[in-house]
C-alpha cells in the first residue's frame, strides 16, 4: 500500500479549533500495540467489529520507523520522528554524547530527549482532566505537567485487564473532579505485540490473544454504556504498526555483511540497523554494505539519501548509515541468533518501511454524530471508503473532538478530520 503523502505545513489553528457546532466530546483512545487491521476481521473480535460497524475503520499509515516508541509518540503529538526526536526504540545523540533506550526507565523519562507536546498535556493545560494508562511516554513531564492520573512506570507486566480497571476508575474520578469538562483517557495494551514477536503473527496464540483483548475492549465499552456515556464519548482504537513473520530462509548476520571492526556503534536490528562508523570509516562501511544489498534482502542508505517520503533524514539522532530490510528479511547483530535459540522461525518483527502492507496500523473510531466508513466497500453498500492516512493526523482529530487547540507546531493537517467529521 503506498503511503499517504501530506505536505509539511503549519496548520491553521483557527480552522481546526473553530469547531463545529457540535459540543466537545469525551475521548477514550485504546492503543493496541502491533495490531494489523486485517486481523480484526480474520480473528474472532465481535466487539471491535461492532465499534467499526457503528463508526469508522480504516488503514492508517504509521510513521517510519515502524517501531513502538517513535510511532506511539507520533500518534499523540502529530509529529514525525524527524521532529519529535524519538527516532527509534534505541539511538545515539551526538550532541549529548549519550545513547537513549526505552529499556532504561529513568533515562527514558528525562524530558530533554523529547520534543513535541502529547495530546494529554495539550488537554490538561487547557483545563481538561486527563488519564493515561501505561501509554509509552506518559511518565515523561511535558510543559511542566503530568496527566492527572497515570501509571508512573511503563511496564509490559501491566495487563490489559488492569489497564481497563484503572481507566474506568479514573474516568469516574475525572467526572467527579470536573463534571462540566470533557475528559481524555488513553489506555495502552501491549500483549498483541508480545505474541506477534513470539511465537509470531501467524500463530494460534495470536488468534487467542486477539480474542482476549477484544473481550477487554468490550468490557470497557459496556462500562461506558452503563454510565450512559456513549452519546457523549468518542471511542478510538489504534495501533502503532503491524507485524510480519520471520524465516530462517531470509536472514543474514551483520558481521557477514560488513567488517564490524569499522563500526563504532549500532542500534536496532532485524528490520532496520542504524550504524555509526568509526572516524574515517564511513565510506568503507557503506561500500561493503552496498556491494551486498539486493531488493529481496536489504537496502543501505546514507542518511541524506533516505527517501523523502519517509520524512526521516534531518534529525541529528539518525545514524549516518541506515540499513532497511526487505519485508520479512532479518539482519541479526552478533549474539542475537544464539539468544533466540539458533532460529528466527518462531519470531515476528516490525520496524520495516511504512509503505509495506504488513506494517499498516489499525484505526477504528466510534464518534457520536460522525460519518460511517469501513476500510473496504465489500462490507456494506451504505458505507463510504475511508482513505488511508498518516498517523500524525490523529492528534488534530483528538484536539477537535475535545474542543481544544492542537499542539503547535505539528505535522498533521485536517486530512483525517475532513474524512471523519
Characterise the protein shown here:
Helix 8 runs parallel beside helix 10 and helix 9 packs antiparallel against helix 10. With 421 residues, the protein is of the alpha/beta class. The chain is 30% helix and 19% strand. It has 15 helices and 20 strands. It starts with 12 loop residues before the first helix and ends with a helix. It has an eight-stranded mixed sheet, sandwiched between helices. It has two domains: 283 residues, Alkaline Phosphatase, subunit A (3-Layer(aba) Sandwich), CATH 3.40.720; 99 residues, Gyrase A, domain 2 (2-Layer Sandwich).
Structural class determined from secondary elements: alpha/beta
Number of domains: 2
CATH class of the largest domain: Alpha Beta
**Poorly predicted ranges (pLDDT <50, ≥5 residues)?**
1-21, 376-384
**Could you state the oligomeric state of the chains shown?**
single chain
Mean pLDDT reading = 91
Terminal Cα span: 24 Å
CATH homology superfamily of the largest domain: Alkaline Phosphatase, subunit A
Please give the number of β-strands: 20
- Strand percentage lies at 15-25%
Could you tell me the radius of gyration in angstroms? 21 Å
- Any idea of the CATH topology of the largest domain? Alkaline Phosphatase, subunit A
What is the overall number of helices? Answer: 15
Form type: globular
Helix content: 25-40%
* CATH architectural name of the largest domain: 3-Layer(aba) Sandwich
Biggest β-sheet: strands ordered side by side in the sheet: 6-5-7-1-8-17-2-20
Instruction: Sketch the major β-sheet.
Output: 8 strands, mixed
Keywords: Signal
Protein name: Alkaline phosphatase family protein
Signal peptide: 1-22
InterPro entries: Alkaline_phosphatase_core_sf, Phosphodiest/P_Trfase
